[in-house]
Every structure is written in structure tokens, then in C-alpha cells.
Design brief:
four-stranded mixed sheet; Glutathione S-transferase Yfyf (Class Pi), Chain A, domain 2; Glutaredoxin; globular; 4 strands; binds glutathione; alpha+beta
Length: 211
């Protein structure tokens, strides 16, 4: 790998931290990988809260600039270091609007409103309380949103335009998370996910994301 300005990543072991390790691998960037995990106490130290007062992972530091939020980190790295191609449609006003629409949809409807509800009331029920109805309706809602939010044609190659982007990282990490939550994905999503898993950078990102 080539010489790079100092990059440090805190966080490993979750679908959200994977987003950061995967884009770093796509961009062929070296970094200091601090594999701290959520719910281990490592995010609750005063030293870590001085870096991220939200006490969450992932976090990136680039030459002292601190950024939290997995997708914002992926966007920053892509914009700052380049290295991923774009096509004309992606760069058009319509393409940019579509990017924002897809990102908002995935982060709000799939990640926050569905998968995180399941996590809170299943794996983290000792903190947030058991809520079987909320879990089962979040699973149903997730599948409804998958069906309505993305046409089948958006999954034949890349989810946005004709080039791989951080939206493919976002969607694949969401599908991995859903699979781990025992949600049975529609066939075309399984095919898309399998294809993304063949990318060498996905595999390297997975290895670097091991807690
Ligand atoms: N929206 C944030 C969510 C970050 C988040 O909730 N991270 C979890 C792990 S996936 C966490 O660090 N929880 C804190 C803790 O449990 O100590 C992102 O995408 O980065």
C-alpha cells in the first residue's frame, strides 16, 4: 500500500464499522486500526469520549480531524482520497439527487427504523427492554421497504449508476446485518449481496473489521 497521511479508525465487529474498513480497502489506504468494540466498555472511557462524546463506533481521525457516523466517514474518505470512478449520470443533478434519496432511504428506513429497532429489543433487550411486537413489525417493515424502495433493476449491477459507490457498501452492510438478524432476503438481493462479497476490498474490509 502507498504512503498516506495519518488515518486512525476506532471500531470493529459491527455492520456499521465494516462500512469504514471496506471503503478504506477500496481506496487502498493504510490506517491505524484500533479494534475497540461496542458494549465492551472501551467506548465508555473518558479518553474515548473525548474523541467521540456519543461513545459510539466507528470514528475516523484524519490528521486530527475527527469524524463519526459510518456513512459520513465513507463519504469523507471517498471525497478526500478519490479513487472510485463515477459516470456522467451519477454526476448530473438528477444523479446527485438520486444518491441523496437512496442514502436517506437506507439510513433511515432500513438501518435506523428497522434493523436498529430489532437490535435494541432483541440483542440489547437488557438495556432497552423486550418488545417482541416491535421486533416482528420491524422485520416486516424492513422487507416491505426493500420491496418498495429499490426496483429490481437497481440491483443488477450497482445500486447507483453504473459504477461502484459507497451506496453499495451501505446496502451490502445492511443486507449482511439483516441476514444476521435472520431476515430471509428476496432472491435478487441475495444475488446482489453475493456479488458484492466477491470484491477483494470487501474481503479485506471484513478481515480488518474482526474485533
Ligand atoms: N449512526 C451511527 C451508529 C453508530 C452506533 O450506534 N454504533 C454502535 C455499534 S454499531 C455503538 O457504538 N454503540 C455504542 C456502545 O454500544 O458502546 C453510525 O452509522 O456510525
Amino acid at each position: 500500500m502507498s504512503q498516506q497521511p495519518e488515518l486512525i479508525v476506532w471500531g470493529a465487529g459491527t455492520s456499521r464499522t465494516l462500512r469504514v474498513h471496506w471503503i478504506l480497502a477500496e481506496l487502498n489506504l493504510d490506517y491505524d486500526n484500533r479494534r475497540i468494540g461496542p458494549r465492551t466498555g472501551e467506548t465508555q472511557t473518558e479518553a474515548y469520549k473525548a474523541i467521540n462524546p456519543k461513545a459510539k463506533v466507528p470514528v475516523l481521525s484524519h490528521d486530527g480531524l475527527i469524524i463519526s457516523e459510518s456513512f459520513a466517514i465513507a463519504r469523507y474518505l471517498r471525497r478526500t482520497f478519490g479513487g472510485l470512478s463515477t459516470d456522467d449520470t451519477q454526476l448530473s443533478p438528477e444523479g446527485v439527487a438520486r444518491f441523496d434519496e437512496l442514502a436517506s432511504f437506507m439510513l433511515m428506513e432500513l438501518d435506523a427504523t428497522s434493523l436498529y429497532i430489532i437490535r435494541r429489543h432483541l440483542d440489547l433487550s437488557q438495556i432497552y427492554g423486550e418488545a417482541p411486537n416491535a421486533v416482528s413489525s420491524a422485520k416486516t417493515y424492513f422487507l416491505k421497504m426493500l420491496g418498495e424502495g429499490l426496483p429490481k433493476s437497481a440491483l443488477t449491477e450497482f445500486v447507483w449508476g453504473r459504477c461502484f459507490s459507497e451506496l453499495d457498501i451501505l446496502l451490502t452492510s445492511i443486507l449482511d446485518w439483516a441476514d444476521a438478524a435472520e431476515i430471509v432476503l428476496p432472491e435478487h438481493y441475495q444475488v446482489y449481496r453475493h456479488r458484492m462479497h466477491q470484491r477483494p476490498a470487501y474481503r479485506l474490509g471484513k478481515t480488518n473489521n474482526k474485533a
